[in-house]
Design a protein that fits this description.
With 143 residues, the chain is an alpha+beta fold. It has a single domain, classed as Alpha-Beta Complex (endopeptidase fold (from Nostoc punctiforme)). Helices cover 24% and strands 22% of the residues. It contains four helices and eight strands. It has a six-stranded antiparallel beta sheet. Strand 1 and strand 2 form a beta hairpin. Helix 1 crosses helix 2. The termini are close together. The relative contact order is 0.24. Belongs to the peptidase C40 family.
Length: 143
């Protein structure tokens, strides 16, 4: 799989309505559901079922469930080395678990889904850049 294939797959989700814990292109997804959908499209069946999780980005108590799952199934890279097709994880506030993710396009934007909207492509402005806590590559990604 190539970086451009990952970005194209992610962009194929744009406009999918936000639905917490969903992962069905065109019908509903959340940020993790978008990444799961791209995985299914390009890698194959999901390696594990996603556990139930809270939609609360500011949840102060809790495990690093998203970060730990990413470390089990993706290849961690330095956040500053992330490029097109890489998965970015975000910590929305200090002291809370990483609770948001998306796919970098390599063009200064991020494809992600968030509450009250849909899957969208957003500029990676400093507000987002400051919140990146980790970056990962899909297995089998060719440079």
């Amino acid at each position: 799989m190539t970086r451009s294939e990952v970005v194209a797959a992610a962009r194929g989700w744009i406009g999918t309505p936000y639905r917490h814990q969903a992962s069905l292109k065109g019908a509903g997804c959340d940020c993790l559901g978008l990444v799961r959908g791209v995985w299914r499209e390009l890698v194959g069946p999901e390696p594990e079922a996603a556990p139930a999780y809270s939609p609360d980005w500011a949840e102060a108590l809790g495990e690093e469930t998203l970060l730990e799952a990413a470390r089990r199934h993706l290849t961690e890279i330095p956040a500053g080395a992330a490029g097109a097709g890489d998965v970015l994880l975000f910590r929305m506030a200090a002291g809370v678990p990483a609770k948001h993710c998306g796919i970098a396009t390599g063009e200064g934007t991020l494809v992600h889904a968030y509450w009250g909207r849909s899957a969208v492509e957003t500029r990676l402005v400093p507000w987002w850049q400051r919140r990146v806590v980790a970056a990962f590559r899909f297995p089998g990604l060719e440079d």
